[in-house]
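Box 4.2: Ligand-aware structure prediction
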Amino acid sequence: MKNYSGSCHCGAVRFSFRAPEINSAMQCDCSICIRKTAYLTPFKVMQDDMEITAAGDALKTYRFGTMAAQHHFCSTCGIHTFVEPRLSPGTYRVNLGCIGGSDTLHLPVEIFDGKSL
Ligand SMILES: [Zn+2]
């Protein structure tokens, strides 16, 4: 397991988590993920392994449809930092672009068929 830390663009939302080595990325093609085109962790981060700190009420959550998935984002800079997937609430897929030092665009990418859910 490794320790990772990350933030939104403006730094109002910060987080750290423990997880295996990140050597691939996941992209989801559901109606919101296709719009933000974020590269996500290929695994889910357990709630107990995730620590989130947010300035004031910077961290907002967008829900739609069944309202089950929680798309968390910074209300100051607009960056989607992580999502709690509909099928596994209480876990997180983290936006790899928010993690310091990650070479996200060079990782092999797996497409998750979210639009069929
Ligand atoms: Zn921000």
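In the box above, the bound molecule is zinc ion. The beta strands are 2-7, 13-19, 25-28, 45-46, 50-54, 59-62, 70-74, 80-84, 91-94, 109-112.
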